[in-house]
């Protein structure tokens, strides 16, 4: 079995209420594939945080998930404002989210650290004014 | 602890998922910050929160939680109830405040999770 399974989602940036739909769908898909529950949880939490970030900061974007025999890869791509200082953004508690987002339960500066925490590999490519692409992998 | 016991202890009402209130839960967490909830995965089955929006349900779903208790008499929206039903999550609402609700459940044996250092 060398075929890679891929899933593509457009993440709507206008609607905070619907943010997370792609992650819910991925969770269902991975369950159907018989992936271990712990792995599914790590993938879906990391993707969920990423999705929320895209909605809060970047006006939405695209999510692509690839399932191989040895890992699950999530690529989140947006054309948002970009991250000026990635090192700073990775610090727990650092956030540029507006207060309105905090009142919704996010923007505590935990999103990116959580994504790193739950994945085996994470890479952030970002250019201010151009956008951000985050690649994460969870080993199976 | 059974969800039905939590309901009694907190004098709570079942918003949806009545058919699952005999399920057992072994640990819980209380927070209004969803990112904090997402940061500490163990096997918490219950989320106590005063926050009301769809992301509360999605966060619980991501964490494989089976019950959400809304404290301070908060009521979930119809949209949230629909999401919870789809995910098989029991929703309770209680007038008890967060600190008291957590204390009542904890002192009756429903613990949190010890932080790994």
Give a short overview.
Chain A is an alpha+beta fold. In chain A, 35% of the residues lie in helices and 29% in strands. Chain A contains 5 helices and 5 strands, in the order βααββαααββ.
How is this structure best described in words?
- The complex is a heterodimer of chains A (140) and B (117).
- Chain A is of the alpha+beta class and 140 residues long.
- Chain A has a single domain, classed as Histidine kinase-like ATPase, C-terminal domain (Heat Shock Protein 90), CATH 3.30.565.
- Chain A is 35% helix and 29% strand.
- A five-stranded antiparallel β-sheet of chain A has the order 1-2-3-5-4, with helices on one face.
- In chain A, a hairpin with a 3-residue loop joins β2 and β3.
- Chain A is globular, with a radius of gyration of 14 Å.
- Chain B has five helices and five strands; from the N terminus they run αββαβαβαβα.
- The model of chain B has no long low-confidence stretch (mean pLDDT 93).
Labels describing this entry:
heterodimer, A: 140 residues, alpha+beta, Heat Shock Protein 90, five-stranded antiparallel β-sheet, 5 strands, 35% helix, 29% strand, globular, B: 117 residues, alpha/beta, Udp-n-acetylmuramoylalanyl-d-glutamate--2,6- Diaminopimelate Ligase, Chain: A, domain 1, five-stranded mixed β-sheet, 5 helices, 36% helix
């Amino acid at each position: 079995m060398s075929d890679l399974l891929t899933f593509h989602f457009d993440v709507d940036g206008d609607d905070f209420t619907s943010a997370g739909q792609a992650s819910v769908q991925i969770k269902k898909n991975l369950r159907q594939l018989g992936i271990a529950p712990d792995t599914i949880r790590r993938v879906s939490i990391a993707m969920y945080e990423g999705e929320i970030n895209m909605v809060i900061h970047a006006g939405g974007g695209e999510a692509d998930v690839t399932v191989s025999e040895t890992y699950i890869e999530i690529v989140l791509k947006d054309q948002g404002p970009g991250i000026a200082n990635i090192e700073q953004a990775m610090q727990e508690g650092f956030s540029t989210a507006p207060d309105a987002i905090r009142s919704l339960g996010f923007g505590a500066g935990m999103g990116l650290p959580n994504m790193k925490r739950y994945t085996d590999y994470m890479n952030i490519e970002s250019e201010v004014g151009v956008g951000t692409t985050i690649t994460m992998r969870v080993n199976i | 602890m059974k969800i039905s016991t939590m309901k009694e202890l907190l004098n709570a009402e079942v918003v949806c998922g009545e058919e699952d209130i005999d399920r057992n839960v072994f640990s819980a967490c209380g927070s209004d910050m969803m990112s904090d909830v997402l940061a500490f995965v163990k096997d918490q089955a219950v989320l106590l929160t005063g926050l009301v929006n769809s992301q509360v349900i999605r966060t619980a779903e991501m964490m494989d939680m089976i019950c959400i208790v809304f404290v301070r008499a908060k009521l979930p929206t119809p949209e949230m109830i629909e999401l919870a039903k789809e995910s098989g999550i029991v929703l309770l609402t209680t007038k008890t405040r967060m600190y008291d609700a957590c204390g009542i459940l904890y002192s009756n044996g429903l613990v949190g999770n010890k932080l790994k250092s």
